[in-house]
Amino acid sequence: MSDQMTETTTDQDAVVLEDSEEDQERMHELEQRIIEQGGITPTAPDDATRGGFGSPQSMITEAKKHIGYRETGENDTKFNRWLGPIGAYPHDGFGYPWCHAFVSYCLWHSENADTGPRTAGCESGVSWFKQHGRYDSTPHVGDIVYYGPGGGTHVEVVVGVTPDSIQTIGGNTSGSVDGKTFFNGNGVYQKTVKRSSRINGYGHPDYSSGQTPAGTGGTTTPGGTTTPGGTTTPAAAKMVKPITTVRAIKAQQAAVNALGFTPKLDADGEWGPKTEAGVKWLQKKIGAGVDGEWGQDTEKLFLAFPK
User: Fold this and answer.
1) N or C: which end of the chain has fewer CB within 10 A?
2) Which of 103, 191, 206 is nearest to 154 (CA)?
3) What is the DSSP string of 240-299?
């Protein structure tokens, strides 16, 4: 079956990861295996960027591309192949539960890299959002919804919000495509989910743009305000203050470009969202603390980094 499918929404709760003890244990085991191997290392270089253009809309557009995609074998998907192997799972370590791998893949492929957690574990995802102060019980379009005790059993992307339900797109779940219904949780589907106690909470990715997809009912996006007519005004973007005592802004831009950042920055000596994103990308690539500020540690690691 191709990745591009006709979209069909079904009125049902997320199916594949029910809140049974067996499913909770399965996801907890996944978390433990990630810890035991010291994290997940991609098998291919990470060339995704946060270029200042990411938004809830770009995230949703990416998620919709994959509706109807189905796993092969036992949980073997392109999302796991992108994220990286986890020991003791089939298919050379790629056959693990993939609901969060799907969410992370969509973030990293929609100009939203690092706006949320890159992980296969739902417990780790919840922890990431809580540590960043971006987790609560109020849904917005573009949020990441976590299900089950502690949010540890399943995760999906919120693409619509009403007073009593949310519309979601999720991986490793069940649903209907082209008139056919699949029940064994083997694919990516869109559905309507009741806002019930099964939902633990919502993570709010730190999107570059707070603009929300067109909708009704005054739906808000993280950090934004909603007018009575339903128009959302994005919150003001938080800009990192550049450090220039170590390396001038123009020299920072040239260094980012030299390591392969795309699209390349204009080396004009002007600080803005694109340059900030580029510096953060470079810091992640060389193993420095990702704060967007080019200090002594970033300079030292950059100079030692193979070019």
Assistant:
1) C
2) 103
3) PPPP-SSS-HHHHHHHHHHTT-SSPPP-SS---HHHHHHHHHHHHHHT---SS---HHHH
Q: What are phi and psi of 106, to 5 degrees?
A: -65, -40
CA distance 255 to 263: 14
Helix, strand, or coil here: 50?
A: coil
Model pTM score = 0.65
Query: With the CA atoms of 151, 155, 157 and 162 taken in that order, what torsion angle do they form, in degrees rounded to the nearest 10?
Result: -50
With tokens 């244990």, the residue in question is 25
